[in-house]
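Sample pair:
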Amino acid sequence: MAKGPAKKAAKKPVKSVAKAPARPAAKVKVPLPKAKSAPAKPAPKAMAPSRPVPTPPTLAPISPVRPPAPEAVSVFERGMAALHHHDYKTALAVFQDLLTRFPSEGFLTDRARVYSELATRELQRQPAGSGNIEERLTEATLALNNHNDEEAARLATNVLREDRSQDLASYLLAVVASRRGDVETALAHLRQAIETNPECRLQARQDEEFDPLMDSDEFHALIEAPATPTPGSAAAQARKPVRKTGR
């Protein structure tokens, strides 16, 4: 049997397949190099609680240093010149004068005190009988003014052994005894001084060294009796070294 023309197979419609959206390519993770870990620091030690810092005191402003008086410097230089020539008597007298007239000259008066003590020690090394009567009385007066009672008594006693008419020596011994509280000895020496030179009672009335004798009736009798001028008493008073009154 003859075959007819072959029938073309009907084409089936091809359904379009929707393409899925392209996925992004996966990122490749590149491993990073590991950072080296720093060595662990030791934990700080616990510190003791700090003490409060004290507030420094407020200092007063420093006043400018006042230079010594020119006259005081001149007196000091005279004392140093005498000390340099080993004239300890003059040096002691000059330094004592500086301390009396210029007591507030700072380092200058401090040095004067040191050199006064030096001159006194040098004078003490000399034998008791050295020098004439006037020189020994001057030394005794300076020693008494410098509160060196033992040296003053030693020199005054030495003078009286040589000459009993030296009223200043008796007066100095009366002052030394009064300082020591020996009323009877002080009255005996003061009586001798007044008998030798009645003008001594005028000085005794104003001398604070005799305050310990104020309770003695005999002391008041000595200083209140009228002074009777005697020949030569004015000359005796004129030659006396000046002695400071008071303690």
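Confidence is low (pLDDT under 50) at residues 230-242.
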